[in-house]
Amino acid sequence: MPLLSRAMGSSNWDYFVPYQHDLNAALLQLQAQVLADGAYYWAPGGRGSASRYPNRPTTMADLFSDELVQQEGTHSILDMDEVVGPDEEPDFAAVAPVTADEARERTGTEILTREHAPHIRTLADKAWYGRYAVLHDTDGKPSEIYFFGYSGG
Predict the structure, then answer these.
(1) What's 12's DSSP letter?
(2) Residue 43, beta-bridge partner list
(3) DSSP annotation of 21
(4) What pairing do the DSSP bridges indicate for beta strands 10-18 and 48-49?
(5) Phi first, then psi: what are they for 63, rounded to 5°?
(6) For residue 151, what are the β-bridge partners?
(7) Model-level pTM?
(8) Distance between CA atoms of 50 and 133, rounded to whole angstroms?
(9) Nearest to 76 by CA among 27, 122, 12, 6
(10) Ranges of H-type helices in 81-139
């Protein structure tokens, strides 16, 4: 689950997680794993990977109680607050779905697989917002959720 790159103060990030129907639960589980692994940028720890610091925060509340983290973010999925549905307008720090039209335009199909991920990656085109797509196995059944976006300052 590495950060992809840092550009213009923000970092691209992406994650593949096992599919589950409750997308917000999937987001929370992913965030718990990223937090536990220290797989995020931690400015208060010396502006580097949090995994290098044994004294890093252990809860989201502790992490985001730091003003520097609030300003600069974590350059990871930790910067996202919620998953919104296809009929909802995403707000700051929200993760919105790849629409069927976007999927067809980028890949020629609505049934996305892991192989389609590079083709939809550029749909995350606004800082401090994320996207997600349900990816399918060879039988067309949901198998993964692909979270991607960019954040950080």
Answers:
(1) E
(2) none
(3) S
(4) unpaired
(5) -60, -50
(6) 11
(7) 0.91
(8) 27
(9) 12
(10) 100-107, 117-120
Could you tell me how many residues make up the chain? Answer: 153
> Helix or strand or coil: residue 10?
strand
Beta carbons of 61 and 37 less than 8 angstroms apart:
no
Structure-token pair, residue 32: 């718990």
Tens digit of pLDDT for each residue in 30-74? 999 999 999 999 988 877 899 999 999 999 999 999 999 999 999
SS3 120: helix
Tokens, residue 116:
């389609």
- What's the pLDDT tens digit per position in 10-23? 789 999 999 999 99
Tell me which H or E stretch contains 37: helix 23-37
Among residues 134, 131, 129, the alpha carbon closest in space to that of 21 is found at: 134
Q: Which two tokens stand for residue 143?
A: 């198998």
For 67, 80, 126, 147, 151, the CA distances from 75, given in Å and listed in that order, are 15, 10, 13, 13, 5
